[in-house]
Amino acid sequence: MSPNNINKITKQGIEDYNIVLNDIKSLLNKAKANAYKAVDNVRVQTYWQVGERIVREELRQSRADYGRSIIEQLSKDIGLSGALIWRLVQFYKAYPILVTVSRDLSWSHYEVLITIKNKEERDFYEAYITANKGSSRDLRKAVRERLSDKFKKGFNVHLSPSATKLMPNDVFKSAYNFDFLELKKDYNEKDLKDALLKRFEEFVKELGNDFFVGRREVPILISGNYDKVDLELFHAGLMCYILVEIKTEPFRHSHVSQMYSYLNWYKKNKLRKSQNMPVGLIICKSKDEETVHYALGELKREIFVSEYKLKLPSEKEIIEGLG
Predict the structure, then answer these.
(1) CATH number for the 169-320 domain, one of 3.40.50.460, 3.40.1350.10, 3.40.50.300, 3.40.50.20?
(2) pLDDT single digits (tens) 57-66
(3) Residue spans of beta strands (DSSP E) within the chain
């Protein structure tokens, strides 16, 4: 066989390999997405079971005030917020038959649906968002615009992704998967940040599309004191700076005030006319939704809080960590 033929075969082999590589990457990414979806399906079904158990006990006790007292006591004993437990009860009451709970919808979807008291309207929005494969944000928008009323009046209603302006809620994830990192068990914040820098390309890929890297450990001078932002990014779709802070501890209120000062500094010193306001992303070891809710307050459109996972949780860990 001549050298030319060998070269041709080698080139063809590289092309074939790239096809195989891309196919495998696609399979792995799909599997990862399915794994996270499976985790949320377990969450939804377990939440339904918890709601059913509480309602069953309410009916057995036949006391008007028992529902409130059991929620308060459970909140203390199992560590879930009273507000969340109350929503679990409402979830069961809205969907008393488990098989009617769709595997295509997340807990975020159901948190919106259970606020709709009229069953006919709730069924409409559930069918609408399922058919259009919309996010919980799309569902909230549909409810706010009262699409069910428009549908009853004969208007055609459909989800138009191109007409939906990209918002930070569409960009940031509730949890980021850092399973590509190799960390010792007693790692600290510096270890985590160093590991992310070593696998920086994979880190940015996990954040999502349209992120452009700015600078790392950006110095900020406030009142004569220097501080550093862990990471400065720019998002092409949002047209704004994204300031990222990495924390190896559970979310704390103080993280918000720190990030808010960084955002204000950027607004004054870095913002250009063509840009939107900067947005902050705090990635913590864990977060409590109620703590995040009250810590952010009116800052929910400026600061977002996520958690990171070093590995996908086991079934036991999923059930134990549902709160």
Answers:
(1) 3.40.1350.10
(2) 877 776 656 6
(3) 175-177, 211-222, 225-235, 240-246, 279-284, 303-309
